[in-house]
Specification:
Blueprint (H helix, E strand, L loop, with lengths): L4 H18 L5 H10 L19 H18 L1 H5 L7 H10 L8 E9 L5 E9 L8 H9 L6 H8 L10 H10 L1 H17 L3
Antiparallel strand pairs: 1-2
Helix pairs in contact: 1-3, 1-5, 3-5, 3-9, 5-7, 6-7, 7-9, 8-9
């Protein structure tokens, strides 16, 4: 899959409008300035070879996670039985910024692969080169808090959004999900976006 320049621009516009409409805390403008003017966030891929491995994949994935998280939190059981309720501000912050750690870490390159005829050919790809190797979820929290404060639940949600598929101690993941249900909800939304919405 690939995105046209128009789709990339539309995703960028939707992201910024959502963020500016919902996030009112001090420092929010500085995050947008960083994303727009000091990073490749809106043109970066979401991964090197898996989901969103194309220009604009990171912003698209972030928006997909937002849509999935909103849908999850609107479910009748989630609202009435689990009693989960979060502000639009928290939902936007957690979903749109959970992978901010992926800004400025992908480098364009090429690799050799065999085509359908068994002939080697050179194809474009991305390589992961992290100049601030601070982990994944924890790096996103670290980056965000350099601009604005997070609530404790927002910080834990972003930190543990990889859930049990990350490199974290599984006991810590379970405790985080139990203590901060937004962490479970964000992880669920991230997995849904990755494995269903972005399946191809």
């Amino acid at each position: 899959m690939s995105l046209t320049q128009q789709q990339i621009n539309e995703n960028k516009q939707r992201f910024i409008e959502l963020f500016n409409t919902c996030v009112k805390r001090e420092g929010a403008d500085k995050i947008i300035d960083y994303l727009v003017n000091k990073s490749d966030f809106f043109t970066a891929p979401a991964s090197t070879r898996f989901h969103g491995a194309f220009d604009g994949g990171l912003a698209l994935h972030s928006l997909n996670v937002y849509d999935c998280l909103k849908d999850y939190l609107e479910r009748q059981r989630v609202k009435e039985q689990y009693k989960l309720a979060y502000s639009d501000e928290s939902i936007v912050i957690c979903s749109l910024l959970h992978d901010i750690c992926k800004a400025n870490v992908y480098v364009r390159g090429t690799r050799n692969v065999k085509n359908d005829q068994g002939v080697w050919e050179t194809v474009p790809t991305y390589f992961f080169e992290d100049k601030l190797p601070y982990g994944h979820g924890e790096k996103s929290v670290y980056m965000i808090t350099g601009f604005m404060r997070l609530t404790r639940e927002e910080a834990f949600a972003i930190r543990y959004h990889m859930g049990f598929s990350g490199n974290e101690d599984s006991n810590n993941v379970g405790k985080a999900f139990e203590m901060f249900p937004l962490a479970f909800a964000l992880s669920t939304a991230d997995m849904e976006a990755t494995y269903f919405v972005e399946k191809d």
